[in-house]
Amino acid sequence: xxxxxxxxxxxxxxxxxxxxxxxxxxxxxxxxxxxxxxxxxxxxxxxxxxxxxxxxxxxxxxxxxxxxxxxxxxxxxxxxxxxxxxxxxxxxxxxxxxxxxxxxxx
Length: 106
Fold this sequence. Notes:
This protein is an all-alpha fold. It has helices at residues 2-14, 21-55, 59-87, 89-105.
């Protein structure tokens, strides 16, 4: 019985399982999501001057507006893990995408 386990372990070491195509798609979507989050953060910083001018914000309030993007990201990261554990990853990601799309439409 030990030889069968050793043979299976040796076979796995020589020929590791290949990732399927959907794994690469998920990796690409996650990478693009991270890229978009960074882009949104940069855009918020770039638009801060115009927003401060439009609404006559002080320097402190301008910082609060820009940091709200990062606080929202942190809160979302803390809340989505437990929600995904209870509801499942797919429904959580779909709901997050819908919230993002609705926010973009506003």
